[in-house]
């Protein structure tokens, strides 16, 4: 049970990090109808800026705050220089342009920070572990990531559900054309959404930096998982992104942890390991296929998109 508890906590941690990335992606895609393949690069830039500013200041919280400001400025710059010129273009143009941006920025971080992975130390006051039982310890910082993810999810829910900006975001996710016809400055709304989505992705990268290697291309796999999350949850839905992220995080973690033991019930240890390694990475995509078959619009589609 202690080992199961550890894997569940790991799944929650992964799911909440995925939620932070997917929330911005689903808002940009759902409200702006804009396919941004470079969203994973924003996650990577958040990690690099956090590593830089924490190293300069020697203080985790100050460095994290500076990194969040920096990634929002970076997002606004990208939106003004490049992305706003792609809103009226086809999805193919958006895919090609943002894919090119991935290649450009991955090479850019190599030129600025080098190709070697960077490390970010865990803050001193978050070091140590919590005893879960039977001598099994779980790092305090991973609880901090879980708590931060839940706090950001609560703040995002309050903004989307209880504020005028959130009302405009929900209206835009349902019908952006009608929102524009009602006199709302949709371009300014797009800019705010893009900056906020960039900040969420950068925050996820910054929080993951102390437990992962900060390296070029680290956002590529995260982007794939984020797209899986928003397809499962429903495009344009924050509630769907939260539910989808938790499902993906838990299923991916538990499948990788227990698939070998499960396959040993049917085949020998060597064969079980080989089969499980291939199957464990497929479970979230099988889940996505099942959801698309049963609910093509996702588990919690944005109102007006069903």
Topology (SSEs and partners):
Layout: H1 2-32, H2 39-57, H3 60-81, H4 91-113, E1 129-133, E2 136-139, H5 140-162, H6 164-181, H7 186-208, H8 219-233, H9 238-263, H10 269-280, H11 283-294
Antiparallel strand pairs: 1-2
Describe this structure in words.
The protein has about 300 residues and is an all-alpha fold. It has one domain (about 1-215). Helix content is about 75%, strand content about 5%. It contains 11 helices and 2 strands, in the order ααααββααααααα. The protein has helices at about 1-30, 40-55, 60-80, 90-115, 140-160, 165-180, 185-210, 220-235, 240-265, 270-280, 285-295; strands at about 130-135, 135-140. Strands 1-2 form a two-stranded antiparallel sheet. β1 (about 130-135) and β2 (about 135-140) form a beta hairpin. α1 (about 1-30) packs parallel to α5 and α2 packs antiparallel against α3 (about 60-80). The longest helix is centred in the first third of the chain and has 31 residues, at about 1-30. It starts with a helix and ends in a 12-residue tail after the last helix. The mean pLDDT is about 85.
In brief, what are we looking at here?
By secondary structure, the protein is mostly helical. It contains eleven helices and two strands; from the N terminus they run ααααββααααααα. Helices cover 73% and strands 3% of the residues.
């Amino acid at each position: 049970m202690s080992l199961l508890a550890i894997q569940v906590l790991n799944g929650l941690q992964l799911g909440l990090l995925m939620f932070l990335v997917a929330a911005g992606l689903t808002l940009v895609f759902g409200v702006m109808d804009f396919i941004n393949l470079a969203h994973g690069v924003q996650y990577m830039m958040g990690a690099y800026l956090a590593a830089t500013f924490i190293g300069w200041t020697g203080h985790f919280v100050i460095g994290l705050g500076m990194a969040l400001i920096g990634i929002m400025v970076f997002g606004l710059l990208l939106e003004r220089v490049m992305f706003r010129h792609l809103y009226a273009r086809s999805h193919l143009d958006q895919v090609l342009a943002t894919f090119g941006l991935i290649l450009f920025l991955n090479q850019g971080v190599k030129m600025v920070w080098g190709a070697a992975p960077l490390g970010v130390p865990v803050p001193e006051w978050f070091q140590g572990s919590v005893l879960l039982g039977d001598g099994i310890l779980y790092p305090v910082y991973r609880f901090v990531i879980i708590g931060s993810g839940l706090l950001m999810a609560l703040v995002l829910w309050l903004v989307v559900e209880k504020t005028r900006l959130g009302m405009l975001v929900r209206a835009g996710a349902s019908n952006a054309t009608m929102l524009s016809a009602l006199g709302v400055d949709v371009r300014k709304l797009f800019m705010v959404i893009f900056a906020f989505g960039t900040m969420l992705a950068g925050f996820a990268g910054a929080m993951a930096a102390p437990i992962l290697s900060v390296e070029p291309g680290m956002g590529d796999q995260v982007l794939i998982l984020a797209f899986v999350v928003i397809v499962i949850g429903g495009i344009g839905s924050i509630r769907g992104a939260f539910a989808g992220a938790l499902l993906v995080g838990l299923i991916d973690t538990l499948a990788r942890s227990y698939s070998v033991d499960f396959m040993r019930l049917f085949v020998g240890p060597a064969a079980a390991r080989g089969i499980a390694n291939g199957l464990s990475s497929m479970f979230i995509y099988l889940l996505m296929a099942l959801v698309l078959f049963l609910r093509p619009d996702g588990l919690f589609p944005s109102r007006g998109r069903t």
